[in-house]
Amino acid sequence: xxRKILVALENSPADATLLPHVTALAKTLGSELLxxxxxxxxxxxxxxxxxLAESEEMKADREYLETAAAKLRGEGLTVSTHLALGDPPKxxxxxxxxxxxxxxxxxxxxxxxxxxxxxxxxxxxxxxxxAIPVLLVRAAKKSA
Length: 144
What we know:
Elements: E1 4-8, H1 15-29, E2 32-39, H2 42-45, H3 56-74, E3 79-85, H4 88-98, E4 103-108, H5 114-119, H6 122-129, E5 134-138
Parallel strand pairs: 1-2, 1-4, 2-3, 4-5
Helix pairs in contact: 4-6
C-alpha cells in the first residue's frame, strides 16, 4: 500500500515521537523511507540565489539526517535522505511528488490559532495542498 514514505523531520524532540510509528509501519508494509529535513534559515533560503557556502546549521541538519538513517538501516529498513532548502511546506510537497511518495508522515505539535500564527502551520499547508495521504503523529508534550 505505502511503498515509499516521506518522513518530514524537524531535527527536534518531536522526531522521537514520529519515528517509532513510521518505523513500525515501514517494517509491517515493507516500505522504503525517505527522511526529509527542510533547512529554512537565512543561508538555506538564499543558498542558490546568493551562492552561499553551506551553513553550520545545514551541515548539522545533514548529519542529523544521516545519523537517523543509519539507525533505521541498522533495523533492516531501506532509507534515503534529502536535505531541502527553503520553505518547509513547499519543499515537503515538492519532494513527496518528485520522489513518488505514497504517504507523508509528520509530527503535530497541537498549536491552536495563536501558535499557528506565531509558528506557521506547515501541516495545514501540506494537508490542504496534496492528494497524498498524510500521517500525523502528535508529538509528546514537553515536560514542565
